[in-house]
Amino acid sequence: MALTGREKSTILLSILGADVSTRILRYLPDEMAELIASGINRLPSPSPVALSEVMNEFQSFLALPERPRPQLPLPAEVVPAEQPIVQRPKRSYGILMYERPQLSAFLISLMPEEQREEALQGLSRGREVVAEMLQALKNNPLAETLAGRLKELYAGKLF
């Protein structure tokens, strides 16, 4: 089934719900936001095939498959004992793109050190601004309370 971009976006936004859709539509040009919003209101029930197509395409943008690592033979004297290699799954940091740079910088500061660079690279726009804010971040009395609440809100998405 061949869907147009507008049909796909209308279906996706209708799945995401009114609150999330409103936040997303804010970032689009007014004419396009109006077209999509009116399309959501007139959207007939999408077929399971259309829903599947949209969700598969959306998911392909969120979780890219990891590149297989080549297995290099080790010399006999260096062969370690059998230990499974545990790789941390790649996370999508696209959610930070829709937050204010100040909040993005604070959230990145709460991440473990090895995850921070990956999160910064995951930002498609405003990366330099967030990096500067991250460097200039100061500690304040509310930081601990805020950190706890934000970790709850973003659990499973960033943490």
TrEMBL record:
Gene3D superfamilies: 1.10.220.30. Signal peptide: none annotated. InterPro entries: FliG_a-hlx, FliG_N. Residues 3-60 form the Flagellar motor switch protein FliG N-terminal domain. Pfam families: FliG_N. This is Flagellar motor switch protein FliG N-terminal domain-containing protein. It comes from Candidatus Saganbacteria bacterium CG08_land_8_20_14_0_20_45_16.
